[in-house]
Design a protein that fits this description.
The complex is a heterodimer of chains A (308) and B (153).
Chain A (H helix, E strand, L loop, with lengths): L1 H19 L1 H6 L3 H16 L7 H7 L5 H22 L12 H17 L10 H6 L3 H24 L5 H30 L4 H4 L2 H43 L14 H18 L6 H14 L9
Helix pairs in contact in A: 1-3, 1-11, 3-5, 5-6, 5-8, 6-8, 8-9, 9-11, 11-12, 11-13, 12-13
Chain B lengths: L2 H19 L8 H12 L2 E7 L8 E8 L4 E7 L4 H17 L8 E4 L11 H22 L4 H4 L2
Parallel strand pairs in B: 1-3
Antiparallel strand pairs in B: 2-3, 2-4
Helix pairs in contact in B: 1-4, 2-3, 3-4
Classes of the chains: A mainly alpha (308), B alpha+beta (153).
């Protein structure tokens, strides 16, 4: 029951991201990478069978738990897209991403899945955990795919370095939860296969992994709010600088495109105001100087560890 | 197209060509930009923040360039805000990038628009506009390029 709640909480969060960020993804090609990550995450969580019954979904694939493999590959791809959303250059697009890592991992998942588990039982949510009790092949697949996802989770944790300051803690916590969940699952499968299963270890994966996803979703919403706030601040500063320029009879330099982004116009006006003050020996008032200092702080903002 | 439109178009084309010479990319800091200009022109540059600028009048920066040594220095006012003095320095970088032969002329940037400087000859007037255009393009790269962290989620 708790597991279903955790999965559905993560699913609802990612679904919200997909719906609420759809417009931004439509307008800005760079934001589509993050949107796709959330969309693939939604499909991966749907394969858990909490919304559409497992028997129906897995039945469509032959009813031998191939759905589990699909789920594992989708989860890995979703997390990898999440890494790309944070670290790919600003000019990157979904089609320009280098898919080598997820393709290699995906092929490994597929090969090990079919080679290590040629005989699979009928559709079951606990297919892998149950199979691992008696099958070393099932244990091996479990360890391999969990290690693969933990690896991408570790990349996700590292990628948080370049995210917005206020969101970093949520991304880090989320990624740590995902990695810790995978590690706990590896320990659990190993205990189940070779030693005695431990109820506490068995219970660790769900809260760690799915609360990790929820933390990541919170981070995504904080990130989009922060970005909106930064853009609003830019527009607000532009309106105030415009007013000071009008008061002092300063105009925008000729040749600057009217459709230039707010930060470009902000900089050009800021320079024009200072130029006019020096050229006409009419120093800026204290509040005008303070406004230009605010503009400079906005223009030179370091929103993250890296900018590219 | 009237004469001033023609001049603006010419200035923009010349300025864009000069800007392209340095192969600047978004994400660079001002120091990176200076280094890229040094590399592109195979010269050495020093940016000097001047303390004693009381007698500078409307001058906000100047370039001293020694073609024989392939060395130059850009002098700005230490008292100016960093964003503003970097713009003044970028204007001088614009002269360097625009001047194919690096002739060694002394360039000054004035806070007063070149439109209001009757002493300038037409080529000098255009060179000032080109340098200013390059400075605006450098500023756009430094401050108005999209940031990854603001574009991802």
């Amino acid at each position: 029951m708790v597991t279903v709640l955790l999965i559905d909480a993560a699913l609802a969060g990612l679904l919200l991201v997909v719906v609420l960020r759809a417009r931004v993804a439509w307008q800005q090609p760079r934001a589509r990478i993050a949107w796709l990550a959330a969309a693939v995450g939604v499909v991966a969580l749907l394969t858990q069978g909490t919304v559409v019954p497992l028997a129906v979904l897995d039945g469509a694939l032959g009813g031998t738990n191939v759905l589990k493999l699909v789920q594992n590959v989708l989860t890995m791809v979703a997390l990898w897209l999440g890494v790309q959303a944070g670290t790919a250059p600003v000019t990157a697009r979904v089609r320009t991403l280098r898919w080598r890592v997820p393709i290699v991992l995906g092929v490994v998942f597929v090969v090990v899945f079919f080679a290590a588990m040629p005989d699979r039982t009928a559709s079951s949510f606990f297919f892998l955990e149950e199979a691992a009790a008696t099958s070393t092949g099932a244990w091996f697949y479990g360890v391999v795919h969990m290690a693969g996802i933990a690896f991408v989770g570790a990349l996700l944790c590292a990628s948080a370095r370049v995210s917005l300051t206020r969101t970093r803690v949520f991304f880090r916590l989320g990624a740590v939860g995902i990695v810790a969940g995978c590690v706990s699952e590896i320990v659990d499968l190993t205990l189940t296969r070779f030693f005695a299963p431990n109820a506490v270890v068995s219970a660790l994966f769900d809260p760690l992994f799915y609360l990790g996803v929820v933390s990541f979703v919170i981070g995504i919403f904080v990130a989009s709010r922060t970005t909106t706030a930064i853009h609003r601040r830019g527009e607000n500063l532009l309106a105030r600088v415009d007013e000071v320029a009008r008061e002092r009879g300063v105009t925008m330099p000729p040749g600057l495109a009217a459709d230039a982004v707010a930060d470009t116009r902000l900089h050009a006006l800021r320079v024009a105001i200072e130029d006019a003050a020096i050229a006409t020996s009419t120093p800026l008032a204290a509040d005008q100087r303070a406004l230009l200092d605010d503009v400079d702080a906005h223009l030179t903002r370091q929103t993250s560890g890296a900018r590219s | 197209m009237n004469e001033s439109d023609e001049i603006l178009t010419r200035v923009r084309e010349r300025g864009d060509a000069a800007f392209r010479r340095a192969a600047l990319t978004p994400g660079m800091t001002f120091d990176d930009v200076v280094a890229a200009v040094e590399k592109a022109l195979e010269i050495r540059l020093t940016i000097v923040p001047e303390i004693d600028t009381a007698h500078w009048g409307t001058m906000t920066g100047f370039l001293a360039y020694f073609a024989d040594r392939r060395e130059g220095s850009i002098h700005v006012r230490a008292s100016d805000a960093t964003v503003y003095s970097q713009f003044a320095a970028s204007h001088e970088l614009g002269h360097l990038l625009d001047d194919a032969h690096c002739s060694g002329a002394l360039h000054e940037r004035s806070a007063a628009s070149p439109h209001a400087a009757p002493g300038l000859t037409t080529p000098e007037y255009e060179a000032e506009l080109v340098a200013e255009h390059v400075a605006h393009r450098i500023a756009r790269l430094l401050y108005a390029s999209p940031r990854v962290a603001e574009s991802s989620w």
